[in-house]
Automatic annotation (TrEMBL):
The gene is trpS. NCBIfam families: trpS (TIGR00233). This is Tryptophan--tRNA ligase. A motif ('HIGH' region) lies at residues 11-19. The lineage of its organism: Bacteria, Bacteria division CSSED10-310. Its EC number is 6.1.1.2. Pfam families: tRNA-synt_1b. It comes from candidate division CSSED10-310 bacterium. Its main location: cytoplasm. PROSITE patterns: AA_TRNA_LIGASE_I. Signal peptide: none annotated. It catalyses: tRNA(Trp) + L-tryptophan + ATP = L-tryptophyl-tRNA(Trp) + AMP + diphosphate + H(+).
Length: 325
């Protein structure tokens, strides 16, 4: 039997290149190695303000785009978190073995509680506990995520150790799997590319809009004029070239930027062309899939059924260990 892998994505905005490079590509690469379970995590998405009437459509859109990108539903399980309520039950239980001081030092909580200071709520604080529940409900050992989530997986391991020590060996300690693109920066070249910031390139975004956004994106801040030599080492656009362009294009840009042989706009044109070439086939599949509501709903329903069965078995064991049966 293959080890289980678990990962999740929030249906809280358009899936962007950070999600694609930092997580999704790795999910797809690991499909055959693991018994892979992926969740559209709607319980997590409601920890910050959102539009309730848009949620179902966002869930279907996220499902369509991950499948279009190559997440084969025949070789993995895909489901919506809230259709398996055991996630919240286990979250509550894990909350009783989680230290408040550990949650307080979570970088994501600190950052989001500043960003959403008017609505900071208990769900946002407990976000990593729910994430731990997501993973261990399936006794998953591998968790492919971007670097921003590594701290949450470390906390999950801590929670598992505490649970196992208190109630007896029950869960394996999961391991974060980071890909090559650990932390993709946004178009501002400063902050992480993020659905809640206005700094993204969407995977389903119109090619013209992608090029337009790239053209305005921040590059080497010291390069003011086209005649100034640039430093690719500190340029986010150059970093992105590594994930989309050919070795000879990267070498060309690197060399010519340093001697002001090319300007930033030319570099951005090369990048734009290559991003669009890679994501165009995904967009074409997505355009077709997103109207197949029944097909998407059936995939999610089948995934949910399988997950409900696993979750029920785990929770039987957990309730018994806690003296609740
Ligand atoms: P979400 O939707 O915010 O992000 C989904 C995945 O994309 C990665 N990611 C990035 N990677 C590199 N550079 C970026 N700029 C970037 N932005 C996002 C994230 O690291 C993540 O892997 N909390 C999770 C969802 C979740 C989850 C789980 C993941 C809920 N339960 C259990 C793993 C296991 C999240 O960040 O979603």
């Amino acid at each position: 039997m293959k080890d289980k892998l678990f990962s999740g994505i929030q249906p809280s905005g358009d899936i962007h290149l950070g999600n694609y490079l930092g997580a999704l590509k790795n999910w797809i690469a690991l499909l055959d190695e693991y018994d892979a379970i992926f969740s559209i995590v709607d319980y997590h998405a409601i920890t910050v303000p959102y539009e309730a009437h848009e949620l179902q459509q966002r869930i279907l859109d996220a499902t369509a785009i991950v499948i279009a990108a190559g997440l084969d539903p025949e070789r993995s399980t895909l489901f919506v978190q809230s259709t398996v309520p055991e996630h919240t039950e286990l979250c509550w239980i894990l909350g009783t073995v989680t230290r408040i001081s550990d949650l307080e030092r979570m970088t994501q909580f600190k950052q989001k509680s500043q960003q959403f200071y008017q609505t900071v709520n208990m769900g946002l604080f407990a976000y990593p506990v729910l994430q731990a529940a997501d993973i261990i409900l399936y006794k998953a050992k591998a968790v492919p995520v971007g670097e921003d989530q590594a701290q949450h997986i470390e906390l999950c391991r801590e929670i598992v150790r505490k649970f196992n020590k208190t109630y007896g060996e029950t869960f394996p300690e999961p391991q974060a799997i980071l890909g090559e693109a650990k932390r993709i920066l946004g178009l501002d070249g400063q902050a992480k590319m993020s659905k809640t910031m206005d700094n993204t390139i969407g995977l389903a975004e119109d090619p013209k809009s992608i090029q337009k956004k790239l053209n305005k994106a921040v590059t080497d801040p010291a390069r003011v004029r086209k005649t100034d030599p640039g430093n690719p080492n500190i340029c986010n656009i150059f970093t992105l070239q590594h994930f989309f362009s050919t070795p000879s294009e990267i070498e060309y840009v690197d060399r010519e930027c340093r001697v002001a042989g090319i300007g930033c706009l030319e570099c951005k044109k090369i990048l734009g062309k290559n991003i669009i070439a890679e994501i165009l086939p995904i967009q074409e599949k997505y355009e077709n899939l997103k109207y197949q509501k029944k097909y998407l709903q059936d995939i999610l329903a089948a995934g949910s059924k399988r997950c409900q069965e696993i979750a029920a078995t785990t929770m039987e064991e957990v309730r018994e260990k806690l003296g609740m049966r």
